[in-house]
Amino acid sequence: MQKRTAAISLTLLVLAGCAAQAPDVAAEAASPYPIPEEVVAVAGPNQDLTTARLDPADDCYWYYHAGPVETTLVPLRAANGNQICNVRAS
Asked: What is the pTM of this model?
């Protein structure tokens, strides 16, 4: 009897772990990038835009580059190599 109860309990636990969860529509509708779409459009390839952010100290965008040894904050660059910054009012 105990073996049968244990088998049923184990089966229920496994099936509970496989239950599908409803997708979060609000999260899917939101942009995966925390930066404006204009910045995404001009950003060059091979940059992790999901970690990009605006640094208020210099008003430029930076992202985390995960290298083989360490993860470093580096400037976000456009396709032509220029750093992407907001224009400051004079």
From this structure: 0.62
In DSSP notation, 10-78 reads HHHHHHHHT------HHHHHS-SSSS-HHHHHHBPSS--GGG-EEETTTTEEEEEEE-SS-EEEEE-BB
Torsions phi, psi of 54, nearest 5?
A: -90, 125
Summarize pLDDT for 18-53 with one digit per residue, the tens.
Answer: 655 545 444 445 567 789 999 999 999 999 999 999
CB-based contacts of 49: which residues, under 8 Å, 6+ apart? 33, 35, 40, 43, 63, 76
CA distance 76 to 82: 8
Which residue in 71, 48, 70, 46 sits closest to 61, CA to CA?
48
d(CA 41, CA 34): 13
